[in-house]
Amino acid sequence: MGNPDLGSIFQIEIVLIFLFAGIIKGLIGLGVPMITLSLMSLFQPVPSAVVITLLPSFLTNVWQGGKGGNFIKLSRKLWGLIVMVPPGVWIGTYFLDKFELPWFSVILGGLLIIFGVLSLSGIDLQVPEGQENYWGILVGIVGGLMLGMTGIFSVPSVFYLYGLKLTRDELVQALGIVLNIVTVFLAIALYRMGMLYEKQLLLSIGALFGTVCGMVIGQQIRRHIPEGLFRKIFLSFLMILGTYIITNALHELGVLTLSVSE
User: Fold this and answer.
1) Secondary structure element (H or E) that encloses residue 82, with its range
2) Angle between helices 154-163 and 227-253 (to 10 degrees)
3) 3-class SS of residue 192
4) d(Cα 168, Cα 199) in Å, to the nearest integer?
5) What are the b/e assignments for 208-244, b being 16+ CB within 10 Å?
6) What is the pLDDT of residues 111-144, one digit of tens each?
7) What mean pLDDT, rounded, does the chain reach?
8) Could you identify which of 43, 65, 106, 147 might form a hypothetical disulfide with 153, taking C-beta atoms 3.0 to 4.6 angstroms apart as the criterion?
């Protein structure tokens, strides 16, 4: 078998998509799957797009979770959440065929929008100091349950992380630590389903290159953004994420029909 063609690894459209997603991730700490899957689905089957996203998501989350100098401090705050995600996922997968799950996605997307609106309005959620892991245990089991049932981990996990009142850099690092769990579970699921194909894994290399370059740009932008503006950008993105989740779920339910044809 010959060496892979670099052109087949560094497809320009994939590199550019992941460059853009990397900028957003470097800026606010999340967003790669939402951006890349929605854009790549225009020219790639969704399962292939998921596999291509896997390597950039995992390695950039490792980088994001380790960068910032607060790993030990954040791990002490987050251990309850981290420990309870696996049993939550296990329970959630049990309900996969028992409910019309897109409606759960609509609810979760709506909660993201409501949370963003309320927080921008000055109504702030705050996790009581010293009780981070008591709440983390509850959030971990519910977040894992939602992940297992719908593939969405943002609710209530992002609410909890935001409520810890971390600095912008601590929040981004905390997201990297927690999102690694999600990526590992996704990789295990794809492996068990036999979906890790060589071609998509090769394309992941080019995608990783674009994501890393984008993250460096996003991190530099974040360094020059005041804390208040960062929180507004973060909350605005949560509302965009919520809208995206609702739109996808309604399309899946047949309530909303999307068409790119003339």
Assistant:
1) helix 71-94
2) 170
3) helix
4) 37
5) bbbbbbbbeebbeebeeeeeeebbebbbebbbbbbeb
6) 999 999 999 998 878 898 889 999 999 999 998 8
7) 86
8) 147
pTM comes to: 0.84
Would you state the structure tokens that stand for residue 18, as one six-digit string? 């992941």
Phi-psi region of 153 (alpha: psi -120 to 50; beta: other; left: phi over 0): alpha
Contacts of 115 (CB under 8 A, 6+ apart): 125, 158, 159, 235, 238
Shortest CA distance to 114 belongs to which of 238, 230, 30, 227? 238
The residue type found at 67 is: K
| CA-wise closest residue to 89 among 33, 34, 152, 46 | 152
Q: What angle do CA 168, 169, 171 make, to 5 degrees?
A: 65
**If we measure between CA atoms, which residue out of 102, 139, 115, 116 comes closest to residue 251?**
102
Determine contact, residues 48/254, Cβ cutoff 8 Å. Answer: no
The two structure tokens encoding residue 103: 């409606």
Confidence check: pLDDT of 218 > 70: yes
- pLDDT tier for residue 96 given thresholds of 50, 70 and 90: low
| Amino acid sitting at position 222 | R
Buried b (16+ CB within 10 A) or exposed e, 70-101: beeebeebbebbbebbbebbeebeeeeeeeeb
Distance CA 262, CA 21 (A): 28
Residues 6+ apart with CB under 8 A from 34: 241, 244
- The CB-based long-range contact list for 233-236 (8 Å cut-off, 24+ gap) reads 233/27, 233/28, 234/28, 234/29, 234/162, 234/171, 235/115, 235/116, 235/119, 235/120, 236/116, 236/120
